[in-house]
Write a structure and sequence with these properties.
Length: 143
């Protein structure tokens, strides 16, 4: 096995674990709504999750570990990507915000702060900021 195979395997596994964690968030109320399914379909494409792996993860999402990024900057980068995906999907605003709040908690943000982080994330994404300005905006939101 070559070094690049190890990297590809680790990257693929990380994407699958990340996807499974988001499926777990979506399933927290016992079902996946149509809007959540649309979001998951798009996320799977963006994370290069095959149809076969998608089906396996949906069936057995609890077998994947939840590994939110340990560094705050990595969490913000992942939140930026997720907020952009949630924003461009055709989901009504209330459902969009519920999904994003759940994702914030799944990424390791405190549940009592998730609504504020989600609202700020969408506000920044609507402004079209890049990842650096997004991170600065979230970091400075309490100032």
């Amino acid at each position: 096995m070559s070094f690049s195979d190890l990297f590809d395997s680790g990257f693929k596994q990380r994407n699958e674990d990340h996807f499974a964690a988001i499926v777990r968030v979506a399933m927290s109320d016992g079902m996946i709504s149509e809007s959540e399914k649309t979001f998951l379909d798009r996320l799977a494409r963006n994370l290069s999750i095959s149809e076969g792996d998608y089906a396996i993860i949906l069936k057995d999402y609890k077998s994947h570990p939840i590994n939110p990024p340990t560094s705050y900057d990595s969490r913000l980068e992942r939140l930026f990507d997720l907020a952009r995906m949630v924003w461009v999907d055709h989901i009504n605003h209330d459902e969009k915000m519920v999904i994003l709040q759940r994702l914030c908690v799944g990424l390791g943000f405190k549940s009592d702060n998730a609504k504020y982080v989600a609202d700020k994330s969408i506000e920044l994404v609507k402004q079209g900021v890049d990842v650096d300005d997004f991170s600065d905006g979230i970091k400075n939101m309490n100032r």
